[in-house]
Amino acid sequence: MAGSEETFQLTLEAVEAYESKFVPALFGEWAPHLADAAGVAPGHSVLDVACGTGVVAREVANRLGGDGRVVGVDVNEAMLTVARRLGPDIEWRAGDAATLPFADGSFDVVLCQAALMFFRDRAAALREMARVATAGGTVVFHVWASLDDQLAYRRLVDVAARHAGPDAVSLLSSYWVLGDLDELRLLCMEAGLEITEARTRVGTARFASIDELVRIEVEGTPLIERIDADVFRKILDDAGVALSEYRTDQGSAEVPIVGHIVTTRA
Ligand SMILES: C[S@@+](CC[C@H](N)C(=O)[O-])C[C@H]1O[C@@H](n2cnc3c(N)ncnc32)[C@H](O)[C@@H]1O
Questions:
Q1: From edge to edge, which strands make up the β-sheet containing 107-113?
Q2: Radius of gyration, alpha carbons of the chain
Q3: How many whole angstroms separate alpha carbon 39 and alpha carbon 41?
Q4: Distance, C-alpha 262 to centroid of its chain
Q5: Exposed site from 27, 46, 149, 210, fewest CB < 10 Å?
């Protein structure tokens, strides 16, 4: 799920795993913060771009309480299949963020969580979010902060680089590539979006164990194709030590993960 190019169609099985594992582990806790930042309230029409299985759209639907409109759009059919099952009353649309299938000024609020870094054309996607928002409407997006700000993940990447070579850093880093706030400011400016607030917060990523965290990070990236079983074992062993302070008494892992929530006016 952390691959740098996610526009390929995922299998339903991968998406079910995304919903049951990754949403509770990583993404779920951010959705209320996006809705707060955007001031989502009854009566609003809201678009969730790259909605995945719809965790943000469902949060919005709860807040609208039937008064308003919420639409989730994603390029992956399997994501939408699960989203439809979990949110049958929400509108779900297939579409690419770079060519959103909506008329100008269709939404009071446009949200995009944990996805901008995976888009082939980020500038076009932000321009599209600005276009489909009403004049003066709100566009809020969430991205993970840079690797330098990720205390736990940086340790994992350091361990991987020690055993798999310096290439491991970029191979493991697709999550972190949009963490620079100056770069985000420039991207927003070019898309005609005025930043009104940029909030940085620390969340918690939760996994069954440190081993599971490492496996998910390595197996979900191109690094897995570059290493043999022996190197993978060494990464698992050393990461177990480097990340030991994040092991809970029950043996699960709780690691800090820093994200930016950027609020803009269209
Ligand atoms: C890490 S998931 C985040 C999903 C959701 N926002 C969440 O918080 O759970 C990234 C999502 O971006 C979608 N995606 C990637 N490229 C896209 C594009 N060009 N247009 C629309 N969706 C895209 C993927 O299908 C995937 O659902």
A1: 91-94, 69-74, 45-49, 107-113, 133-144, 253-265, 194-207
A2: 18
A3: 6
A4: 13
A5: 149
From CA 241, how far away is CA 156, in angstroms rounded?
Answer: 10
Distant-in-sequence, close-in-space partners of 264: CB < 8 Å, separation ≥ 6: 138, 139, 140, 141, 188, 193, 194, 195, 196
Pocket test for ligand 1, best of 27, 56, 76 (most atoms within 8 A of CB): 76
**Substitution candidate for ligand 1 out of 1, 5, 6, 102 with most atoms within 8 A of CB:** 6
**pLDDT tens readout for residues 159-194:** 999 999 999 999 898 899 999 999 999 999 999 999
> Which protein residue has the closest C-alpha to ligand 1 atom 27?
52
Rounded distance from Cα 81 to ligand 1 centre (Å): 14
Residues 6+ apart with CB under 8 A from 6: 75, 76, 115, 118
For 85-141, how does the pLDDT look when each residue is reduced to its tens digit (9 = 90+)?
Answer: 999 999 999 999 999 999 999 999 999 999 999 999 999 999 999 999 999 999 999
Kindly report whether the global pTM for this prediction surpasses the value 0.90: yes
Q: Identify which of 118, 121, 142 to mutate to test ligand 1's pocket (most ligand atoms within 8 A of the CB).
A: 118
State how far the alpha carbon of 31 is from the alpha carbons of 112, 159, 255, 261, in Å: 10, 31, 18, 10
Q: Which of 51, 107, 110 is nearest to 76 (CA)?
A: 51
The mean pLDDT value for 5-26 works out to: 83
- From the list 87, 143, 135, the residue with the least C-alpha distance to 111 is 143
Q: Which two tokens stand for residue 205?
A: 């990523």
Query: Who lines ligand 1 at CB under 6 A?
Result: 1, 6-7, 23, 27, 50-52, 55-56, 74-76, 79, 96-98, 113-115, 118-119
